[in-house]
Each structure stands twice: as structure tokens, then as C-alpha cells.
Amino acid sequence: MSQLANPRLTPDGLLDEKAMAPVSWRTPIILGVISIVGLLAFVIFTHPGRISRIVVSRSADAIQIGTLHLPSQGSALVLLVVAFGLTGLSFWATLNRRRLGVIPIAFGIVMLFAFLIWAVAGNTGGLPLPLLLSTTITAAVPLVFGALAGVLCERSGIINIAIEGQLLAGAFLCVVVSSATGNPYIGLIAAPIAGALVGLLLAVFSIKYRVDQIIVGVVLNVLVLGLTNYLFSTVLTQNPQGLNNPPRMPSFAIPGLSEIPVIGPALFNQTVIVYVMYVVVAVLQVMLFRSRWGLRVRAVGEHPKAADTVGIKVNRTRYRNVVLGSAIAGFGGSAFVAAALPFTKEVSAGRGYIALAAMILGRWSPTGALAAALLFGFADSLNRVLGNIGSPVPYELLAMLPYLATIFAVAGLVGRIRPPAAEGKPYP
Amino acid sequence: MKKPIYAVATLAVAALTLAACGAAPEDEETAGGDTETTTEAADNSDFIGCMISDEGGFDDASFNQSGFEGLERAEADLGITIRSAESTDPGQYTANADAMVQAGCSLTIGVGFALEDTIQAAAEANPDLHFALVDSAFSAPDFSPVELDNAKPLLFNTQEAAFLAGYLAGGMTQTGTVATYGGQAFPSVTIFMDGFVDGVAAYNEAHGTDVQVLGWDKEAQDGSMTGDFTNTENGYNTTQQFIAAGADIILPVAGPVGAGSLSAASEHEGVSVIWVDSDGFEQESNAEYQDLILTSVIKLIGNSVFDTIDAAVAGDFDATPYVGTLENGGVDLAPYHSFEDQVPAELQTEIEDLREQIIAGDLVIESPSAN
Q1: Closest CA to B226 of B205, B266, B257
Q2: Chain A residues with CB-CB distance to B185 below 8 A
Q3: How far is B360 from chain A (nearest CA, A)?
Q4: Containing domain of residue A338, as a range?
Q5: Given an 8 Å threshold on Cβ–Cβ distance, is A241 in contact with B287?
Q6: Residue of chain A with shortest Cα separation from B245
Q7: Which of A108, A156, B140, B221 sits at a 20 to 30 Å CA gap from B189?
Q8: Using one digit for the tens of pLDDT, what is the confidence trace for A204-213?
Q9: What CA–CA distance (Å, rounded) separates A118 from A125?
Q10: For the whole model, what pTM was predicted?
């Protein structure tokens, strides 16, 4: 045996089991540990006899379901039995070298529900599920637009760290223009212009002057922050009624769809910004992966020399993409102030960077970015909602939730990712 | 290959120039962030009164602004020279305090709980200069209280005024539910919430009602916090949630974030807001929402700043803490303005009686954050 020339093959020429990639027990073990912790926290060390109330429909909804009254311990036990089942399934799948597929995601959802039932146990108000979902959407909207901006820029090979600045610039101009004109829709036209101007600076410095793209992006963020703070302190505070008093963006309910219980009002009774978001995600997904334009953009981002050889204007494509993407981010900035909220200093509060994480987690695709942004939006919304109903989790811990979700998602869920190959490299 | 270098240089210069303007709009220079304005109103121009804001900045329509107004009044009325350093992030506090000391400030006032360590360190390092700190006393690393001979804490027993606001809310609610939330769990924030909760409880006891307060558990000292003092969207969402849970009177204790509450309240019939720090009805930025402001829990930071400077100019600076109370007018409940006709006369009388009792010392409002 030992003198075989190729140790990978058994004497009868078959591939040796031991020579195959080692079985990774990481995921099943993590799931098992989480299940045991969950069992201890949510079932064993919890007050028996408590009721978890979950408010399923709002008073304004067409279809009334009312409030669910679930026995906290029992429901958590059922969910944890499911969680242990999924853990067992993942051990079995790993042993047989099957793909885990949706098992970790299903596990996450089950554990989330167990956590929610535990967190609202004994709470008299109950968990307002429709509100949780609608604030998830509102929290996710700027992240989605920011992440789409990142996708468009990076697919063409330009790193856009300046999403934060573009969101902020968009919010600022949206407030000023819509306050001055009294029409929220004119503000929506102004917001992408502000974003595009920031994007133009990014493009000129990174494409024409070949400055390191990350440095330009960071500097632009500081620039926009300084500029908006300066204008806020000087111009806006002098005339708050005329320039910092945006009108409310009205919500439209889509007939039929908005009456779906639980998710209907959150998804289909929203401002025009949210509907634009759905359209932009769908259009970009199709355009980027199914159109000639998309193929060219991706070629420029992956192998600009090859693209140039077949006659694609590399830098012109990059200019267009950066400006278009930045305009999308600027449009997203208007979501911060859509509820007739005045502009305040640094209203974007670092969400441009979370959008960047959403883009990476979404693997540089529009629908992936949407899903990742919704995940972050949910974490943010959960933190608010649980904090407000008075949960047993201290608010300092809850406040970490969106960032913990970001780190876990980017570090744990993404796995092996591959950014566009020519990203960050000036051409030629 | 020289071009990129020029481009970087140009961009950096542009960014620095503009960032400088943004960081300290009232200032001539950024690093120190100090400004000099001399008036000829009186002959105290050799007295330099200085102020450092916390990260909210002097135009926060809240306590930094109130403090700065006191400093400006001292400039106009007493003819002193003023300097100010606006912080935009916590990393600048120490540098700003150093700049103030080097600028030869006779008295440096830090605004906000967040500047406690900075002012304390500066006061210990410069025993010959005078300091004051709004909203916090000084403490050793183990949280035991420390008294310094040259630093005066300017404190407020805000819970007294907030108690009256809570009593009012208990009497005015139609739904039997009221709510409060804070920006961050600083003692100067939670003291409002403690008083408010107690006020509602006192109303319940006096009238046999069962008005609920959402957003703050005084026992546990835990409740709803938006996480900062800038993000109005969080204030808006939090208020929407409280309204959905049945609350019709909201007390936001988060400075400018309260604007989000006003916006949310304006979307619902019969929801009102209690403003904090200054009289919200008179804030120009709230002009559109005047009809929604039931009252305000006011904290006259400006007056305490002015009085401290006044005493220091006269040469009798005294480091014993100033504590603003209902009795000395340092805290108060604002007029009802647009709600004047809607607050029942009996309720107004009850609140007046309670105010008298608190002033007389017959009724003490407890709070872990009280001074």
C-alpha cells in the first residue's frame, strides 16, 4: 500500500475517501451550541406561565387578525425542538457530504422567533409585528439605495466609499429644495443631483487623476459632512421655516396588495421612494446580468484590457456608472427626511458604511443587496421596537444589534466572495 | 506623473478648508476652535469667558444652545470677551479644553455630561483658572463625588418640573397611555423621565386612574433610548410606535430628535408632545407644530451660565454647585400656550398646588439622578 505512486488512489483505482476535502463540522457545531444556549435561555431559565402577545394586525387594516396570545415557554420549546431537528439534519447532511442549503437560514428564522417570544414574554403591550416590518422597510430604504450605488460603481471597477457622503448630500439638498418649493417631489429630483455631483468628484479624481479610490472616497465623506454642517449652522438655522421644513411625502396604498395581512401595509402602503426602490432593484438586476450594457459594465470591472480590446470605452463606462450610481445613492438620502423631518447634522449617521457592507453581503448583485439591506434594516428596527416596548434586554445591548448583525453576516454568512477583479485599479 | 500629486493636494486643501468651516462655523481657526469677539458695552473685556460644546454643537436647539445664549448675554451685558470651541465629536473635547486654557480663559464652561472628565482634568491641571460644568458634578474614577475648588457644577433638579409635566399628562390623556423616550441614558436625560413617571403615578393616586407610561421603567432605570441626539428618524419611528400602542402624549428627552416626535404627532389626531430644555412653543424651528406642544419642561441653563460668569467677573467665583430648582426658577414648567383653554382649571390649580408644595419642601421628588 505504502509504495503506491499516487496515494490519492486506492489499488482498484478509486478515489480515496481520506484524500477528499475534510468534512467541515463548523456549521453543525455552531447550530448545536446556539440551540443549547437557546434552550437554556428561552425555555429552562425563563418564567413559566407567561404569555407572549404578538399584535398581528393594526386597527386600520382591512383584514383583522387581532393579537396572538402564546404561552411563552411552550411556544419557545416547540421552536427549539424544530431548531434541534434542523441541527440534527445539518449533522446528517454534513456526514453524507450533502450541501446544507437553506438549513442555516431556516435555523436562523426559527431561533429569531424563539428570541422574540422570549423577549416579549409577559409584556402587556405585545410585539407589534406590522410596525416591526414597516420600520424594517423604512430603515432599509437608504441602505438599499446606497448598496445599489456601490454595486453600480464597483461592477465597473471603481470603489465607492463615498456612499455616506452621497446619502448625506442627497438628504441635504432634498430638504432645502423641497422646503423652498413646498413640493416634496421636486426635492426628490434634487437629491440625485447632489449625489451625482459628489460622484462626479469621485470619478474625476479616481479616473482622470488616478488617485487611490478609497482615499478619495473617505475625503469626500469628510468634505460633504463639513459642507453640510457648515451650511446647516449658517444658512439653515437662520431660516428654519423657509429652508429646513420639508413637506411630508405622502404614502400611497396599492389597492389589493396593501390588504395582505401582516406584510401588506409594510410593503405596499409606502411613499413613492419605496416603490422607486422596487423598480430600481428589478431593473438593475435585469440590466446588469441580462443586457448588453450590463455585460459591458461587468467586463470593464473584471478585465478592462479585454473590454478595451473589443472596443468598449473603459473610462467612459466608469464615469457613467459612478455618476449614475452616486445619483441613486443621493436619491436614497431623501428617505432620511421623507417623514417631514428637518435636516440635522450628520443625518446619515454612518449608514453609508452599512450600505457598503450590504453590497458585499449581497455579493455585488442588486437583489442580494436588497436582501442584505433588509436584514440590516430588520436588526435596526428590532432594536428600536424592543427598546420601546420594554424588553428584558438592556438597551445598550440592543443598540449593538445592527452592528453585530453586520459583523456576523459579513464574517460568517458571506463565505468565500470575489469582488470584481479590476476593482480599485485605474485604467489604463 | 506629477498630476496626481497636485490633484490630491488640491482635494485635500479643499476638504480641509471646507471641513474647517463646518466644524466650527463661528470660529476663525479650526484646530483650537476659538473665537474672539470684543464689545465695548462695559469695561470687563480683560475677563475672558469661554465655552466648550459637546458634540451636538451650539445650534442644537437644546442645551448647548441655551448655554451659549447665556454666554452671549454675558458678552452683551457685562462686556466680557468670549471665546468658544464647538466640538463635533467626543475626540475633540480635550483639545478644545487645552485651546481654551491656552487662550487665557478666566472661566471655561463645559456644556454637557459628556465633558465631565475633560473639565475635571483641566481644572485639576490649572488650579489658578476657573471652570464650570453644565449638567454634571465631578467624580473620581470609582464614581465617588469629588469637589474641586476651582470648578463649579451647574446642576438641575429637572425631576421637579418633569413631575408637574407628568401630572399634567396624567390629567390630559384621553387614551390613558402616555410615553417618554430619551436620546441616551445620561443622568441629565433620565432625570426627566423619572420625574415624568412619578408625576403620572401621583395623578393616578390622586384620581384613582390607571394611566400607563410607556418607555421608561424607573425601578429598573431602563427604557426607550434612540441612541443619539441627532437622528430625528429614530424619534419619528419611536413616536409612531408609542402612538400605535395607544399613547397620546409624548415626552421626548433627546434634544433635536424631538422634532421627529412632532412630525409623527402631526399625523395623528389628538396626539401632543411635551418639549424639553427650552419653551418649545417659542422655538422658531417648531413654528409649524405649535398646536401640538402641550407644554415644555424648561431648564434655564442660560441663566445659570450668566449668573456664574457674573459672579466670576465680580471676583467672587464660588465652586459650590448651583442646583436649579422650581424654587429658584432654574427649572420650570412652561405656559400651556395653545392648550391654555383645554387644560381644565382644576388641573391647573392642582399643578400650582403641587408646585407650591415642592417649593416649600413638603413634597420631594426622588430620582437616582437628582442632585
Answers
A1: B257
A2: 395-396
A3: 36
A4: 130-413
A5: yes
A6: A125
A7: B140
A8: 999 999 999 9
A9: 14
A10: 0.83
